[in-house]
Write a structure and sequence with these properties.
185 residues, alpha+beta, seven-stranded antiparallel β-sheet, two-stranded antiparallel sheet
């Protein structure tokens, strides 16, 4: 049984686990393609239901501010944290980050979807928000998200800002669905 397009509610909680595709009815599809890009091999998908939370208005304002960068924490295979400074944008209460299939954070998120983002207020770094959640990965073959993010942060398309990106591996959109928001705000 093959499912249709993944709905936003379904997309929120999908783990990619090595195994056999189609082991769970209706769960084959888009993320199998991502797992193949990442070299994980055939994957089965497990839907894990958890509660998402709305982002507070002040956090939304910070995320929308082009002066605010985020630090993305993912989990390395040995359990150690891996942190990367990233550009981020909002899609409702979800947060979007662009990566590639060969970057460590992309590999980490494909293996374990638990992530944390930290953002700090640009005028006062002692004010911050920690956003914990789960990520879903989807291919970005048109490379639209890096262009959107680059225009937000630099005023230029990504290729203009980073000409070496022409050699980037396949791009992924990491959609982070918040489950807990804490911090000093």
């Amino acid at each position: 049984m093959t499912a249709g397009p993944v709905t936003p509610a379904e997309r929120r909680r999908v783990f990619v686990i090595p195994g056999r595709a189609g082991e769970l009815p209706g769960m084959s599809g888009g993320l199998t393609d991502v797992s193949m890009l990442l070299g994980i091999g055939v994957a089965r998908h497990l839907l894990v239901m958890t509660m998402s939370v709305a982002l507070p208005e002040d956090v939304k304002q910070y995320v929308d501010d082009p002066r605010v960068f985020a630090t993305l924490a993912t989990i390395l295979p040995d359990g150690q944290p891996h942190l990367t400074v990233v550009w981020v944008k909002r899609d409702g209460d979800d947060l979007l980050v662009s990566t590639t299939v060969d970057r460590q954070q992309g590999k980490n998120m494909a293996r374990d979807p638990r992530v944390t983002l930290i953002i700090s207020a640009p005028e006062n770094p002692y004010l911050y928000a920690e956003i914990r959640g789960n990520v879903s990965l989807t291919p970005d073959p048109a490379r639209e998200l890096p262009d959107e993010l680059s225009r937000k942060y630099t005023g230029h398309d990504y290729l203009t800002f980073n000409p070496a990106s022409v050699n980037d591996a396949a791009r992924l959109i990491a959609r982070i669905t918040p489950e807990k928001v804490t911090g000093q705000r």
